[in-house]
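Q: Structure for this?
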Amino acid sequence: MAKIVLKNVNKIFNDKAVGVKDINLAVNDKEFFVLVGPSGCGKSTTLRLIAGLEKPSSGEIYVGGKLINDIPPGKRDVTMVFQDYALYPHMTVYENLAFPLKLRKYKRKEINDKVQKAAKILGLEGLLERKPKALSGGQRQRVALGRSIVRNPKVFLFDEPLSNLDAKLRIEMRAELKQLHQRLKATTIYVTHDQTEAMTMGDKICILNNGKIQQINDPLSLYNYPVNKFVASFIGTPSMNFFEGKLESNGTFGCEDFSIKIAGSAPEVEVILGIRPEDIYPVKQDTDIRGRITLVEPIGNEIFLHLDVGKTHVVLRTSPTSDFKTGQAINLTFEKKKFHLFNKSEGLRIDL
Amino acid sequence: MKKMNKYENNRVGYLMGLPYIIFFLLFVAYPLIFSFILVFHKWDIIGPMNFVGFVNFSHLLHDSLFWKSLGNTLIFLAIHIPLQIIIALVIANILNQKIVARGFFRAAFFLPVVISGVVVTMIWQQLYSQETGLFNMLLSKISLPKIPWLISTKLAMPSIAIMATWKNVGLYIVLFLAGLQNVPVSLYEAADLDGATGVQKFLHITIPMINPTIIMVLILSTLGGFSLFIEPYVMTGGGPMNSTLSCVLYIYKQAFYFNHMGYAATLGFAVAFIIMIVVIIQRRLFETEIYT
Ligand SMILES: Nc1ncnc2c1ncn2[C@@H]1O[C@H](COP(=O)(O)OP(=O)(O)OP(=O)(O)O)[C@@H](O)[C@H]1O
Ligand SMILES: [Mg+2]
């Protein structure tokens, strides 16, 4: 059992730079939990607090029900894979894997068994005598993983482990990491700034911004019910489209360029209407919403259309069968019930 | 026309290099060649040079005082180098951490390096003095027997080695600090998570990662140690009973006390050759790949 709980955790560097602010989260045993957010939002800081590489300025951190604030990193039963792998350059792959076991005073034979087993899981058998310098990025990545799994820890922490790999390898390793997790069943916290990685890998995702938690939920809930405008724009590629306007009491949303009925009735407030690229359709018949195509991006199985609707830049996804040209004017309609409304002042979600 | 231009450019380059070329010819190449010629001659500076062939060499092989000076120098190195490396490494490691007044300590440890060797030696001569020296006075205060720092034939060379270490250690601290700063922080963090203690991190990460700096310090202090001269010259004159007679002091005495210029040159070349052998052995034994 290794449930991780953070209670009101704050980290302020040198009394001024905010690392994270009032973090409350719970990661269930065996869960694959993803921390995602833009650069500098406090992902690494959160991870390093759990690993014990940073001390929280205030708050409590529990692993398996035990308060670990004052336990040194080596005794936390937590392991971390660093972005730059942090392999020991003067040791061979074998010695790198054996190092944590040696420090824990395992017998030589036991060390050998564990190292061989980890090497087999990760396909490193032929590389054990090499030094890290003589390995490719993907192989180094595996060694870093191996150094973590030999210890059989309760908690795995990953800090952007795939960001140094090329796109193809990244997708392969993504699947491999996920399979490894299913096999080892250790509680895992995975940091990334790539929302696709977050969506595809996470059982649960936590979105951070400016050191604060924005939302924690499973990937689909995040996608369908973002609690604020930041989450809405962060999750999904291409990003959600936004229109600034006003709600009328009759349930109509109106902005400079069009108005659209979205509910039976509504409070009269200034809002931002969000709609995802796949929920906008080009149509033949005349509609209230008109756009001019500024860019056509063929992806293969679909097309991204960039449009100007009045002064608003809009992206939509459509099938590649239709023929579009830059400069062409088209009519659009929005999928009913797929609107997201956020109040203009704070960007918080409004449900009608 | 173009060729002419190129030639002009080259001439400016040579002109810029001229001061050093003159310096090199006058103070490096000329003495080197001249002393190599001296090796095969007898010369007392005043009279003419007499060609003697290999007589100086055979003399060297049977000169017990030379071998004693070499032994003395090796004793000095055996104390001075390990002491220097260990102290410099430990202090550099401490100064590399976030401690109060780090800048002050860094400067303080470096200070003896820039003080003249003669001045340092005179200060230490007083510290080591048998009756009035500070060390022995302190020892008496706490009712311990006095130590014959510079009087005992056994202790005189170690005493000089301690002083030389005090004088030079600042330089090596600075070199080690530079080396330590090249070790990626994430290695220490990985080791923290792997469960390493401070001492284990020092042994398994710091030492192997700064191996190039250690080798550099080893070689620099070997070269420095072999040229030990000012300290025994000022402090003991080579005594008591030649126990602090270093190679270079012996060469100096042969040259300027006894005016045996040819023999002194021979000794010089012999010592250079021995230093080369020692450095080769050190590198074979201690050098690893470079990792940073
Ligand atoms: N040692 C430190 N001293 C001062 N400020 C720090 C320190 N470490 C992090 N910070 C600050 O804390 C904030 C969060 O940093 P953190 O490294 O957690 O971001 P991140 O989400 O991991 O970003 P990235 O995606 O770029 O890695 C940043 O504003 C950063 O400048
Ligand atoms: Mg980071």
